[in-house]
Each structure stands twice: as C-alpha cells, then as structure tokens.
C-alpha cells in the first residue's frame, strides 16, 4: 500500500505530503465530487480538498510544408492552413501583422521567428496557438479539438520538427488570476521535479537556450532544495517570485545576445517554466511550461497538457506538500499525475501513460551542470533571441482578450 502522510488540516479535508511514494489508487474512492477513502499508516478516512481548475492554451511550434502546393512565402502557407482548418470546422484566424487582433476562442496561425525556415524547400517555421479552454470542465471537447487540428494538419501538410520546435503549455486558474500561494506551489514543483521532467524530453531540450533550467539559475544554483523552497516562501510579490524563477545574468550568453549592459540583469522567459507572465501584476498572467519538444501528433500534445495541468492542480491544491529533503522519482510523480487525471475525470488518459512510458533516464555528465545557459550559443540562436525579444506574445494577447471578453 503506498505511503501517504496526512497532516491534519481543517475537518473534512486532508493535506498530502509527497515522500517519494505513489498516491492511493483513485479506484479506492468514489468519483469526482464525492468522498475519497484512502488507507494510510494512520488508517484515516478523509475527504480530498478540491484544487482549482485551470484554463490553458497550447502553442505548437513546427516546421510545415504543404503536401500539394509549393509555397514561396509563409503568407501563402498560412492562408492554406487556415482554409483547411476552416473547412474542417475549426475556428481560426491568421495573425499576419502586428496589428491583427487575436481571439481567445479561436486557433491563431502565425510565423515563428525562433524556428528556421527553408523557403527553397517550401518549409516554414510556424506557430499555432490554441484557444483558452478549461482543463477538467470540458475535457472531452478540448481533446477532440486538438485531435481534429492535428488530423487536419497531418492530412494536408508535412509536419517536421527541429531542435527549435516546441510545445508550450500556458496555464492560469479558471478564475483568471493566481493567488500567490498557488504560484509558489507550482514554482516549488517546477524546481523539485525538474530532473524527473527532463526524462520525458529529448536530450536537446534539456540544454536548449529556449528552455533553460529554473533550478540551475542565478538564485538557486548554489542552494540546496530546502534552501530553494525557503527562497520561494520568502517572496511577498508575484514580481519577486518571477524574478527568482527567470532571472538572467547580463553576462550570460543570453544576456550578451540581447545586448544587456553589464550589471543589468533581467527577467527572460526562455526557461523550462516561465513565470514572466506574472509581471501583469496582482496575480494576473499565465505560467508557461516551455520545455516539451515539437509535437506532430494529438497524443503528444494531449499528454503534455495533462502533465502540466495535473501537476498544477496537485501543486495548487490545499495541502500538497513536497519534502525537499527527499529525492523525487519519476515513477511516483507519474502515479500522482495519473491519479489527478483520474480525479479530474479525463476521458482519455492513454496519452499521459504513453508519455510516461517513453521516459529515458538522465545520465549526469561529470563536470557539467544541467540546463545552464550554454557557454557559447550559435550565431543563429543569437540572432533569433533578438528577433524573439521583439516578437508578439500571442498567448499573452489571447489571455488579455479573454479577461476583457
């Protein structure tokens, strides 16, 4: 029987501490809104405190080529993608210029400056940004939508990935804003489980300039995990929390690429977990998981959404406690994620199971620190960091539009 420590909380609720073991089976209790029974070393029967639901959107960064037409520019490819999606009944629009408005209820199609294009081969770096949708309230709908989009894309276009391609997941509580304790909880999980999540991505996404380590950054590099937790607990503002999670040295390769002046360190979003969106203030903004590679199948996309949303629900639920003195294990984390997917009434959990099955253990390289900004970045990466710094943040624009609608 898995070992769970229940820390007494208010009557009728429980606090759960992650101690390296897996969760109780969801089948030991009744379903979503009923009492959950679990046997512990105290043989205590309690009720689960329901975590917040989340809204999310997905950014898919891919290299795309039409199967029937040889497009010489990205504009023609964007229009063809939009036309095929529309014919399939998928609401969408093209963000063809900086002034094109975006909708939080439609897919947005745009070029992607961080992904190299190959016009001679009619392949272009593209980005598709999903609507903002509820994770657990309309799970069948958003999963079907992602399947329809990827089915349409694969039917009419060649989808390939490069090291710069990505699957970004932006999340925010369904209320539209974060509470500081919620954001702190997710920040702790991001640091604590970083090495576990590294096992789910290809090696090149463990050292990408676009998805640097939050754990091995300026604030946390020389700290133990308990010290990292204490740093997070000490933050009194969202801006302070974002700075700790995404601080970038002006002297780093990324800082030099962006022409930062000596000593002018700054926040930057190119980390595994980006908290830069919280600079909207007062808890508004999204937190984004940016490490996953480009996804060409619906199963991959759905799997990553479930990883992020289930981890967020666990991290922000009342009483989720991580013991920083214990070493996390992917097996136990996977069991907890599946437990939360079951509790959230996900209609199809096989994408999450498949993603966990493909994990490859990370073998540390002696003398190196995982996820640090590279000693040297390529000329191409240097230029694309500059371009990306002035590019539109479509997910953030969609979020702002969502709040005003």
Notes on the protein architecture:
Residues 29-40 have a biased composition (Basic residues). Pfam families: Amidoligase_2. By secondary structure, this protein is of the alpha+beta class. Strands 3, 4, 5, 6, 7, 8, 9, 12 and 13 form a nine-stranded mixed sheet that branches. It has a three-stranded mixed sheet with strand order 1-2-14. It has a two-stranded antiparallel ribbon with strand order 10-11. The protein contains twelve helices and 14 strands. Helix 2 (139-156) packs antiparallel against helix 8 (298-316).
- Kindly provide the radius of gyration, computed on alpha-carbon positions and rounded to a whole number of angstroms: 21 Å
Taken from the alpha-carbon principal axes, the silhouette is globular
Largest sheet: 9 strands, mixed
- Number of DSSP helical runs: 12
The portion of residues forming beta strands comes to 5-15%
SSE topology string? EEEHEEEEHEEHHHHEHEEEHEHHHH
Total strands: the figure is 14
Termini gap? 48 Å
Low-pLDDT windows of residues: 1-15, 26-48
List the helices and strands and how they pair.
Layout: E1 5-6, E2 16-18, E3 54-66, H1 74-87, E4 92-94, E5 107-111, E6 124-129, E7 133-134, H2 139-156, E8 157-160, E9 166-173, H3 180-192, H4 194-198, H5 225-233, H6 238-246, E10 247-248, H7 253-257, E11 266-267, E12 273-274, E13 287-289, H8 298-316, E14 321-322, H9 330-343, H10 350-357, H11 379-389, H12 394-404
Parallel strand pairs: 2-14, 4-5
Antiparallel strand pairs: 1-2, 3-6, 3-7, 3-8, 3-9, 5-6, 9-13, 10-11, 12-13
Helix pairs in contact: 2-8, 3-5, 3-8, 8-9, 8-10
């Amino acid at each position: 029987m898995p070992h769970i420590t229940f820390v007494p909380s208010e009557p009728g609720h429980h606090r759960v501490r992650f101690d390296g073991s897996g969760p109780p089976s969801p089948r030991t209790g009744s379903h979503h809104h009923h009492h959950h029974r679990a046997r512990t070393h105290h043989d205590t029967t309690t009720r689960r405190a329901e975590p917040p639901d989340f809204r999310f959107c997905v950014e898919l960064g891919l290299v795309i080529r039409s199967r029937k037409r040889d497009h010489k520019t990205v504009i023609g490819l964007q229009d063809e993608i939009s036309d095929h999606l529309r014919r399939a009944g998928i609401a969408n629009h093209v963000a063809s210029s900086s002034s094109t408005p975006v909708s939080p209820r439609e897919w947005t199609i745009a070029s992607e400056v961080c992904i190299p294009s190959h016009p001679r081969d009619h392949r272009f770096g593209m980005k598709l940004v999903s609507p903002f949708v509820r994770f657990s309230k309309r799970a069948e709908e958003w999963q079907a939508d992602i399947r329809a989009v990827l089915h349409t894309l694969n039917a009419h276009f060649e989808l390939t990935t490069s090291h710069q391609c990505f699957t970004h997941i932006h999340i925010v509580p369904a209320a539209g804003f974060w509470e500081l304790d919620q954001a702190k909880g997710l920040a702790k999980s991001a640091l604590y489980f970083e090495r576990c999540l590294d096992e789910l991505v290809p090696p090149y996404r463990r050292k990408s300039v676009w998805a640097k380590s939050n754990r091995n950054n300026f604030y946390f590099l020389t700290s133990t995990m308990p010290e990292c937790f204490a740093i997070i607990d000490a933050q009194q503002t969202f801006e302070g929390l974002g700075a700790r999670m995404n601080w970038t040295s002006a002297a780093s390769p990324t800082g030099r690429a962006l022409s930062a002046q000596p000593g002018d360190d700054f926040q930057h979003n190119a980390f595994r977990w980006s908290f830069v969106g919280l600079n909207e203030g007062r808890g508004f903004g999204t937190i984004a998981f940016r490490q996953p590679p480009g996804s060409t199948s619906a199963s991959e996309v759905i799997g990553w959404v479930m990883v992020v949303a289930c981890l967020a629900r666990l991290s922000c639920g009342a009483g989720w406690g991580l013991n920083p003195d214990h070493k996390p294990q992917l097996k136990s984390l996977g069991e907890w994620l599946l437990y939360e997917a079951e509790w959230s009434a996900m209609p199809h959990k096989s994408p999450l199971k498949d993603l966990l099955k493909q994990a490859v253990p990370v073998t540390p390289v002696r003398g190196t620190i995982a996820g640090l900004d590279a000693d040297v970045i390529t000329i191409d990466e240097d230029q694309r960091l500059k371009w990306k710094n002035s590019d539109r943040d479509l997910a953030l624009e969609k979020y702002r539009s969502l709040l005003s609608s």
